[in-house]
Design goal:
2 strands, flat, 2 domains, mainly alpha, Four Helix Bundle (Hemerythrin (Met), subunit A), 284 residues, two-stranded antiparallel sheet, 10 helices
Length: 284
């Protein structure tokens, strides 16, 4: 709700909050991706990593389970609001808040477990530094989500919250769930003392190839949609990927291309990230 020049309340257009959220998520995606790239570059260039050191804390599995439940409860709350069951929706929304708190507590316990094994944040160990860096970055964003979740609950008590508020909160938790999956898998596979730079480079090239194939599929879908909804001339020009993307973006709803565009960006990001890691390790 905004205020007009005459003092009358003015409602923002529907979807404004979602647009801002997506822009925010796009910006922090860059932060998470760049951090993961740095982790794998360092991991690939390090001759010694975790040999003789304790395994990653087993509590990470509990943290993962809590985040899955958090994402599920938030989505359930969104669905309940959509189907006209606000009371049940609020209960699920509150459950999500406490699950997020549980996730933070579980991470603190994981840090304590690693510190008890003489791997505190001050330890001269790339293994420990990477663990605290990756999990700490994620927890910071979970804390930010907790603040927003609490504000959303307060708004609901005041009668100011909407279904969009709950939906946007759920989207944020889904996003952090995906980020956690990438971090968790990186910690699991990166802890293998036998993993060498050559193996990481090979895996990165496989990811690049897979991302490239999926990129082409999204590109062809865009060309097909442009040919169907526009004309064959524009479809011919769309053999340039950037042209195809921009044209599909401009008419995403009309062409039913919104979901494809999201995936197109994801596959492009995967190509850039995996190629960068492979080249950085190979050319060291």
């Amino acid at each position: 709700m905004s205020q007009s020049a005459g003092g009358a309340p003015q409602t923002l257009p529907p979807g404004t909050g979602a647009l801002g959220l997506h822009a925010f998520l796009a910006s922090i995606s860059i932060l998470f991706v760049s951090t993961l790239c740095a982790y794998w570059i360092v991991r690939g260039q390090a001759g010694f990593w975790s040999e003789g050191l304790p395994a990653i804390p087993s509590g990470l599995w509990l943290s993962t389970a809590l985040l899955v439940l958090l994402s599920g409860s938030s989505q359930t709350a969104t669905n309940l609001f959509r189907f006209g069951k606000p009371d049940a929706g609020v209960r699920m929304f509150k459950l999500g808040f406490f699950l997020a708190i549980g996730f933070v507590v579980s991470q603190v316990l994981n840090w304590n477990e690693l510190s008890a094994a003489h791997l505190s944040p001050k330890a001269k160990s790339l293994y420990a530094f990477s663990f605290y860096m990756l999990t700490g970055l994620h927890v910071l964003h979970v804390l930010g989500g907790l603040i927003w979740h609490w504000i959303a609950l307060r708004k609901w008590k005041q009668g100011l919250a909407t279904e969009e508020t709950v939906r946007n909160t759920a989207v944020y938790w889904h996003f952090l769930g995906v980020c956690w999956a990438a971090l968790f898998l990186s910690l699991i596979f990166g802890a293998d003392a036998d993993l060498q730079g050559e193996g990481i480079v090979r895996a990165c090239w496989y990811l690049t190839g897979f991302g490239g194939a999926m990129f082409v599929i999204c590109w062809l879908k865009a060309i097909s949609a442009i040919a169907k909804h526009e004309n064959i001339v524009l479809a011919a020009v769309a053999i340039i990927p950037m042209v195809a993307f921009l044209r599909a973006f401009m008419k995403a709803d009309e062409m039913a291309m919104r979901r494809t565009l999201y995936w197109w960006v994801i596959w492009f990001g995967l190509i850039l990230a995996s190629t960068s890691v492979a080249l950085a390790i190979s050319l060291r």
